[in-house]
């Protein structure tokens, strides 16, 4: 689970993942809008503390994190660029799903990037709709996905 001292590593992980991994599917302008130069544009301590935030730790290095809101919405879900395709995301997702079951939720839902779409499909999610969203003046394609529990 998230602890306040994780915030700096989480902010850095988010920034680097978007800038170095998501740039495969989005333009440089898009990833700079999504993950601005000021990595503290979001109050990471406040937001992560207000949700069920699961953190994968590898001997002091945060390998990934995911946030579950009480209504079943998965917000941020990112794996460190050096821990892609190592099972970290699956472990974080399994913790989130177990918490959702414990909370008696009957579905999980998420808005995912082009990059993350196949991961969530492997976790059993279905695409509800493709959408275009705007962030800091840039438009992005992403997908609303859900999974019944």
TrEMBL record:
Q: Mind telling me which Pfam families this protein's record contains?
A: Acetyltransf_10
Q: Which InterPro entries match?
A: Acyl_CoA_acyltransferase, GNAT_dom, N-acetyltrans/Recomb-assoc
Q: Does the keyword Transferase apply?
A: yes
- One Gene Ontology MF term: acyltransferase activity, transferring groups other than amino-acyl groups
Sorted alphabetically, the keyword list is:
Transferase
The residues covered by the N-acetyltransferase domain are: 1-149
Report the CDD domains cross-referenced here: NAT_SF (cd04301)
Which stretch is the leader sequence? none
Name of the protein described by the UniProt record: Acetyltransferase, N-acetylglutamate synthase
Q: Which organism is it from?
A: Chamaesiphon minutus (strain ATCC 27169 / PCC 6605)
């Amino acid at each position: 689970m998230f602890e306040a001292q994780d915030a700096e590593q989480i902010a850095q992980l988010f920034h680097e993942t978007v800038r170095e991994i998501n740039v495969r599917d989005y333009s440089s302008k898009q990833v700079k809008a999504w993950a601005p130069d000021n990595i503290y544009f979001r109050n990471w301590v406040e937001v992560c503390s207000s949700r069920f935030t699961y953190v994968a730790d590898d001997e002091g290095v945060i390998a990934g994190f995911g946030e579950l809101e009480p209504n079943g919405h998965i917000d941020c879900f990112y794996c460190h660029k050096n821990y892609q395709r190592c099972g970290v995301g699956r472990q974080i997702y399994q913790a989130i799903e177990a918490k959702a079951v414990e909370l008696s939720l009957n579905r999980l839902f998420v808005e995912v990037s082009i990059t993350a779409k196949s991961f969530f499909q492997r976790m059993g999610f279905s695409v509800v709709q493709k959408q275009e969203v705007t962030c800091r003046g840039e438009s992005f394609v992403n997908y609303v996905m859900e999974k019944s529990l």
